[in-house]
Amino acid sequence: AQKVTQAQTEISVVEKEDVTLDCVYETRDTTYYLFWYKQPPSGELVFLIRRNSFDEQNEISGRYSWNFQKSTSSFNFTITASQVVDSAVYFCALSGVPYSSASKIIFGSGTRLSIRP
Amino acid sequence: NAGVTQTPKFRILKIGQSMTLQCAQDMNHNYMYWYRQDPGMGLKLIYYSVGAGITDKGEVPNGYNVSRSTTEDFPLRLELAAPSQTSVYFCASSQPGSGPNSPLHFGNGTRLTVT
Lengths: 117, 115
Fold this sequence. Notes:
Oligomer: heterodimer
Shape of chain A: globular
Structural class of chain B: mainly beta
CATH architecture of chain A: Sandwich
Order of helices and strands of chain B: EEEEEEEEEEE
Strand content of chain B: over 45%
Number of strands of chain A: 12
């Protein structure tokens, strides 16, 4: 069975601090995909990144970076020099191989991030 | 290019009533999904479809039905509304294999209240 755990329910930091959001996943598939989505206060869901299980390279996009470690089944998300506009709920998600019975995408419960000015 | 369109945006139902939440996408995506998001919670998968004529249950399918007669449309049916179905419903679509970053495209959600 697939499972995504985001143990941090809420995080609050002061602007310009770095913050890491944790994501731990469980799957029996050897091929799978991991995602991060952002849900700002306006409610829409915004795609941030997708990684497949064969690519363990860390990725950096501006102030955002992702650390994928298969050995610990983790896909953590770090925001450097946080800004008030980063305040949102962040979801980690997992899917299996496309066009297979494992192709459904399962989300974690989310981490609410508040950045204080 | 509208993306994923959900209707209605808001709806109030009485217990026992039925309704259909509409979802349409114009991106020719094979995959479509229905999620519900309860207040302060994550997204739970209700049903999904990997193509026209093919649907499968997600994590929380009880009380819902779906159909996928065309690639574009994926309606979600509530037959006997219950207060436990009060939630925000999101429809999404994707096209796996369309590139290294083939994300879920979400609709703007339908806020449903059952009283």
